Amino acid sequence: MTTAGAVERVFRQSTGPILATLTRAFGADRLDLAEDCLADAVELALRVWPVSGVPANPRGWLFRVARNRALDVLRRERTLRAKLPLVAGDVPEADDGELALTFLCCHPALPRASQVALTLKIVGGLGVREIATALLAKESAVAQRLVRAKKWFRESGEAVEVPTALEARLDGVLDVLYLLFNEGYQATTGELVVRRELCAEAIRLTRLLTADPRTDRPRAGALLALQLLQASRLPARDEVLLIGEQDRTRWDAALVREGARVFERSCAGPELSAFHVEAAIALCHTAPAPDHRRILALYDDLLAVRPTAVVRLNRAIALAEVDGPRAGIAELAPLSAELAGHLPLPVALGALHLRAGDTAEAARHYRHALTLPCSEPQRRFLRQRLAACG
């Protein structure tokens, strides 16, 4: 792995713990200070590590540099004496602090879109463009949400702690971890098909929720099950492939078994969330011969609890497996306005038209998809599909 790759991996794994520690020490009103100092530390690592080598404790190295940068600022502001004891040690391992920071970012006083954007930025370490793609939003809109959210923190005086009233804020946290995993599972920028470190980070944070009695709810367990079942396919995703084209012998059987166990545990009760239904769909796909009628029925259940255009798109793909590609195409037609600019729509239409034998229409959709933002592996996949249209 290159030094730049090592820095990115450490940054992804360390953003939450480092910012949690610094924000707890300096206060939520100094979130910008903590984030800026961590960015300075990463910039320094990119200059120093190629010469000196990656340190034995890279997270500790980044934390110490970020902490010292922050303390330099505080010295200039004449508040060092009060703050210094709070950050005297090394960065701790992931613990209650990360949960506290995550719940802070998902404060109910903020709009849900701002909660999601801020947590993806602060805890997950995603950039504005990645967040915009994950939220189907414009980059300028995401940037404005982040500015307004940070302004609210500066003025609110909120403490960095796990709240006693969890229910109003847990769903926001779960939505964030769902999006963080999805961005890793289907990377929307860069040279990689998947970003395993983002998937691992989402799973790690979700495990924190299910391991803590205060946050261990059935829907949290269902989300963890979904992540594990999806992550089981990662070894077969060296390139962009449709699920039916993947080499199932390369799927991680241990993750499938764990995902099934976690899902069964999450179903012990009356609660039914969208994560339960998605996990059930993922579990169906682990069968050697998936029951597509059952999958289609589950998508109907998912639409009942999450009536979004993205779910309707996925249901149309499932319908095509049952009633043929033209049935799927007919279901996708009404979504063209709502999902304009959303890469999976022209990709799905191209695939279904190709299956239906309409190569000219398939090529049109693949050419349109190539005009949209996507990762390099996605671009290679689209070019291959376009070539298959003749």
Automatic annotation (TrEMBL):
Domain called RNA polymerase sigma factor 70 region 4 type: residue spans: 103-151
Limits of the DUF6596 domain: 169-266
Molecular function per GO: DNA binding; sigma factor activity
Domain of life: Bacteria
SUPFAM superfamilies: Sigma2 domain of RNA polymerase sigma factors, Sigma3 and sigma4 domains of RNA polymerase sigma factors, TPR-like
Keyword Transcription included in the entry's annotation: yes
Record key words, sorted: Sigma factor, Transcription, Transcription regulation
Keyword Mitochondrion in annotation: no
InterPro entries given in the database record: DUF6596, RNA_pol_sigma70_r4_t2, RNA_pol_sigma_r2, RNA_pol_sigma_r3/r4-like, TPR-like_helical_dom_sf, WH-like_DNA-bd_sf
Alphabetical list of Pfam families matching this protein: DUF6596 (PF20239), Sigma70_r4_2 (PF08281)
Gene Ontology biological-process entries: DNA-templated transcription initiation
Family membership noted in the UniProt record: Belongs to the sigma-70 factor family. ECF subfamily.
Name listed for the protein in its UniProt record: RNA polymerase subunit sigma-70
